[in-house]
Amino acid sequence: MFAKVESQSNGIDLIKIDNEETKIVFTNYGARIVSWKYDDNNIVLGNVVEADEFYEDNPYNFGATIGRYGGRIANATFELDGKTYVLDANNGGHNLHGGPKGIDRRFFEYKIEEQVGQVKVIFSTTIKSEDDYFPGDIDLEVIHTYDVDHKWTIEYKAVATEKTLFNPMNHVYFNLNRDNNVIDNHSISSSKLDMYLLGDDNIVKDMKPLNLVEVFNAESVQFKDIFNSESPVLKQQMTQFGGIDHPFDIGGQEMTVENKHFVLKVYTDMPNIVIYTFNDTAGWESDFNIYKAHSGFTLETQYLPNDINLLGNDAPSILEANQPFYSKTSYKISEK
Ligand code: G6D
Fold first, then answer.
1. Candidates 171, 186, 246, 294; catalytic one
2. 231-240 long-range CB contacts below 8 Å, 24 or more apart?
3. Which tens digits make up the pLDDT trace of 249-292?
4. CATH of domain 2-335
5. Which of 306, 332, 301 is nearest to 170 (CA)?
6. What is the largest CA-CA distance in the chain?
7. Ligand 1 — pocket residues by CB below 6 A?
8. What is the pTM of this model?
9. Residue 294 appears among annotated catalytic residues
10. Ligand 1 center to 160 CA (angstroms)
11. Over the stretch 55-80, which tens digit does the pLDDT of each residue have?
C-alpha cells in the first residue's frame, strides 16, 4: 500500500491511497473522503474533485468532516450550565452541520504515516468559539486510516478549553450499485433498527423510536420497503421528507448494508447513525449536479441530533473542559 499526494492550484491536496483492487482518496479540504473505488466501481459520491479544478461548493457535504456538532440543534439555541447559547441559524431556524463556519469548508493541516498494512492521514485544526458561538475552543485531530482489508477508519481526538458540545461525524454518501442507479435496492440490517421519528423541520420528535424489525417482521430491510411502506407512521414520514433523514439506534456497534454485489460493514462506538437517502437533490444549480433523489445514502455516526435540547444535562454530546474526546468509526467494503 502506498499514498501519493497531488496538489491542485487552489490549495486542495488530493491524498491518493492505492490498495490494489480498492483505491481511496482524501483531501485537506474539510478532511474529506473524495473517492473510494472497488475496481472501477464508485462506492461513494462526489468524486468530481478528481479533476484538477475547484471543488465546487456543493450543499450536500460529500464526504466532509462535520462539526463541531453534526446534526440539527433546534432553533439554533441551547442551554448549558444555566447559560443560553445562540448559534447561527443556517437551516430554517436551526443550526445544522456546525453552522455556516463549520469545519467542512476549511483547510486542515495534515501529515501522512505509511505503516505496515495501513496508511494514516492525520488531519488537524482548531475550532474557535468566535467562529461558531459554541463555548470553548477545540483542538481536533481527524485521523483517516486505510488498511489492507479495504477498511476505512475515522478517529476523532479532541480537547476543549471550556465545557461545550462536541458531536462530529463524516458526511460520506455511499452507493454500492455498479451502475450507480438509485439505492432503493440496498438492504440494511443490524441487531436493532430503531428509527427516531421526525417532527416538522427534521427535528427528532421524542425519545420513542419506531422498531423497523417489528414493522417489517424481518431483520434485514430494503430501503425501498421503507420508502413504499403502508405503515401509516412510515408513510407519513416518507411523504414528508421524501425518504429517510432519520437517526437510528442500531442496538450495538455494527451495521450491515448490502446489495447483490457488495457488503458494507459499519463499526462504530457512537450510539446513533443518521441515515439520509439524499432526498433533496434539486437545490444545487451546477453542471456537477448529476444527482437524482436516492442517488446515495449517508451513514452519519453520531450522538442523537439535538440531544442537548432533548436530554439537557444528560446529553452525551456534552464535553467537559480539558477531558480528551475519542471516537472511532470504520467502514469496510467487500465483494460478494
Ligand atoms: C443531513 O439531515 C441532513 C439533511 O436534512 C440535509 O439535507 C443533508 O445533510 C445535506 O444529512
1. 171
2. 233/197, 234/210, 237/197, 237/198, 240/198
3. 999 999 999 999 999 999 999 999 999 999 999 988 888 888 99
4. 2.70.98.10
5. 301
6. 54
7. 60-61, 202, 245, 274, 276, 280, 298
8. 0.96
9. no
10. 26
11. 667 789 999 999 999 999 999 999 99
